[in-house]
Structures are given as structure tokens and as C-alpha cells.
Amino acid sequence: MKTAVDSFMERNQMLKPEQTVLVAVSGGPDSMALLHYFTTIRKRWKLRLIAVSVDHGLRGEASAEDLKYVEEMSRQWNIEFIGTSIDVHTYKKQNHLNTQQAARTLRYRFFHQQMEEKKADVLALGHHGDDQAETIVMRLVRGANPVGLTGIPVTREFAGGKIIRPFLGIPKESILTYCEDHRIEPREDASNQDTKYTRNYFRHKILPLLKEENPKLVEHLWKLSQVVKEDQEYLEREAEKLLEQAVDFEKNPKKVSFSISAFKAFPIALQRRSFHLILNYLYDGNSEDFSYIHEEQFFDFLTRNIANAKLDWPGGLWLQRNYERITLHFGDPEKPVPYRSTLDIGDTYRLPDGSELSAKVVSGNHLREDTWTFTCDLTHVELPLIVRTRRAGDRMTWKGMEGSKKIKDIFIDHKIPKELRDSWPVITDQTGKILWLVGLKKSAGPESERPGEWLQIHYKQPKEDT
């Protein structure tokens, strides 16, 4: 086994000479074999070894004894030791987590702290080939995306250094044999036999059945994970180009949006990978609650002929489509508050979104007419002006039109997202006549070329945050 692990470590460039290595040790066969293995290479690599161990407090005296055992074996093998006890039960209740999640969070918090305090370069973990196989099969059953088939990473960045898993390429059986050969008598955690935990159920019920069909299951799944990993690394690089070109990311609060046509211009494989990169961004890499169902819903939003639709996703995330744009954001946006205010000549009114409306009188020699400016004959308007949000039944007419049209239908014609309609500014005169649905429709423009006084209203868009 040692030769295989040596080769695996060198191939994956896990170590450099004279590094400080923390070895996470529970007292079980995997971690004890790992700790012993490092004693065999310590001198050659000139390593500083520190065993770190956590009593989760879940098994009373038994787990406390595990901690003492690791401390004693560390002393015998002349290895520095740091141990701690954590209160998983309290943390679990306070943060509404299951036992495994709470234990993992506190355990890695401790590891992170020790990495920083000891200025360590590496945290070594005892995951092995059977753990990798269990992870891949579990993700397959749950409906994982292709990235999930890469399994547990061999190395990853952590606390200014990195996590390494030297045993990931070897089966559990080799580790047990190693312990026997070196007379290591590890502690047995009774909870590892409890099949109420999902991983234990797969370990003791599912994997043995699969191994009966294929004794080389662990080896084959390992090879699969590496092939998928290489493919995914390439796809991820290409998908990142898609994100740069077609997707807008916002930070505070986190929000992602994009044009459907721009997104769909890329191959479907990159669209799918980009979708998962978006989730990684929104969930800080922790998007395990998503399955193929959510992926199908996402692509349904891309392809189905719908104007407005919305889905509530895990963790308070909303998937929203407004015509040709899709947005993913946390929290259901608050409904806009209706507003109504007068706008006198010479005044400026600031709208809730930071945009501004101003009104003034200009001479016939200084007329201005564009998308964001409305001009009309002053004699055709009853002052003061009113700036307000839409009301049920609002209608308006414009030059060359017979009859009138509902404001609601104008919004639909211009594909204005639903969430913007209730805050869109409507300008009327004192009689209630709608003069301008800002940026969309104007009731009338200048009626003649004769000189005189004209009302001019200008809309100024809000400044973008820099």
C-alpha cells in the first residue's frame, strides 16, 4: 500500500519538503493508518507533523476515549497532538442542522483554526477509494449533475493551504491490511454501523451488492471520476467564457441575470455547466439541494414560450422569467409602494428608485423631443402636473390613434416585467388625462411650429452604483 500511496502523492503533487502537515485523526482505521503512513515519510520529506482530533460528544465516554487513544498513539509515535471537544447537539439545534452537518461544520472550523494558528501548509484527511465510490453512487441516486460524478476532490484549497487525501486512490481493504501489518489497533466507532445515516446505509447495504456484481467497482468508479473530472475542467473553462460574455452578476444582494437569446447562443453542454456555475456563485459552492428536477425547470424556462413565470427554489432562491430575461435572486422582492405627488413647473421630483422627473417651460426655439423628454403645448395642460403609479382601468390615447388603450396592454406590448409595472411613473395633468407613460407612450407632441410657451418634462435615470 505504501508504494501505491507514495506514487499517488507524487502524481498529484500533494507535498513539498519541509512543510507543516496537520493529520485529522479520529482513532478509526483510516485515520490511524494515515497518521502512521506520515511517520514513514516524515524524515524523507522533513515534515512537521501535528495530529488533530475532535471529540464530537455524540457517544459519551466512548468518544472521549477515542480522543485519549489518539493522543497516546501520537505520543508513542513522537507526533505533536492537538485535541478538542465540541458540542454538536447545541449547535445542531441553534442552526437547524442535522447531526452530520453540524458535526462537519464544527470539525472543519476547528481544522481551519489550527491551520492558521500553526501556519500549516496541508491538512491530510483519510478518505479512501470506498468513500469515493460511496459518494458517487449516492449522488447518482439523488440525481446529481455531472460535476457530482467527480466525487471527492484529491486536493482543494483550505485555510491558506490545502486539503489532501493521500488514500483516495486505494480501497478500504488495503487500509485494514496495513493496520494489521503494522499492528495498529484502531478504535471502532459504533455509530459507523448505524444505517439510519445515509452514508452508512450505502456503505453496508448498497455497495456490497454492487461489489458482488463487480469486484472492481471501487477501481472503476475511481477511473470514472477522473475522466469526468478532466472533461468537467475543460467544460468549466469554456463555460466561464459564456458567463463573461452573456451573464450579469451582482453582489449585494447576490443576483444573476441574463438574456435568454444570448445564453442560448452557446452549445447546450456549456449552458448546462454555466447553470451549475451560477448556482455555485449564488450558494457559495454549497448547492447540494439541487437535482435534475431543478435543472429541467431551468431549461424549461429557457425554451418554453412564456412571458412571465416564477419558481421558488431551495434556500429562498427565486428563478424568474420576464419575457427574454431570466433572473435568479434570493428573497421574494417587496411589492412597490404606490406613490402620488404634484410636479410644479421648475420643480424636480425624485422617484423611489432614484430617478428624477423635472418640469419647465421653454420657448418654441428650444424644443426637445426624445425618449426621455416629453413636450406639449402649455395651453393644452391643466396644471399642476401629477406623478403617480398606475391604477386599475388606466387608459391613454396618443396622436394618430382612434380611441384609447389600457396601460396594462401597453406594458404587455413593450414586454415590461411584471415587477416593474406597479412602480412605473405615469404623468397626468390636473384633470387626470395621462400625458406620458414615461419612456413608453406620449399623449401628444408639439401641435404646430408657431412660437409660444411649451411644457417640457424630462426623465433622468438613476445613477448606477460604481
TrEMBL record:
SUPFAM superfamilies for this protein: Adenine nucleotide alpha hydrolases-like, MesJ substrate recognition domain-like, PheT/TilS domain
Name of one Pfam family that matches: TilS_C
Keywords from the UniProt entry: ATP-binding, Cytoplasm, Ligase, Nucleotide-binding, tRNA processing
Gene Ontology BP terms: tRNA modification
Domain Lysidine-tRNA(Ile) synthetase C-terminal as annotated: residue spans: 385-459
Signal peptide positions (record): none
Region feature (Disordered): 444-466
Binding of ATP, residues: S26, G27, G28, P29, D30, S31
CDD domains in the record: TilS_N (cd01992)
Localization (cell): Cytoplasm
Keyword Coiled coil: no
Catalytic reactions on record: cytidine(34) in tRNA(Ile2) + L-lysine + ATP = lysidine(34) in tRNA(Ile2) + AMP + diphosphate + H(+)
Listed EC numbers: 6.3.4.19
Gene Ontology MF terms: ATP binding; tRNA(Ile)-lysidine synthase activity
The protein's role, per its UniProt record: Ligates lysine onto the cytidine present at position 34 of the AUA codon-specific tRNA(Ile) that contains the anticodon CAU, in an ATP-dependent manner. Cytidine is converted to lysidine, thus changing the amino acid specificity of the tRNA from methionine to isoleucine.
Family recorded in the similarity comment: Belongs to the tRNA(Ile)-lysidine synthase family.
Name recorded for this polypeptide: tRNA(Ile)-lysidine synthase
Lineage of the organism: Bacteria, Bacillati, Bacillota, Bacilli, Bacillales
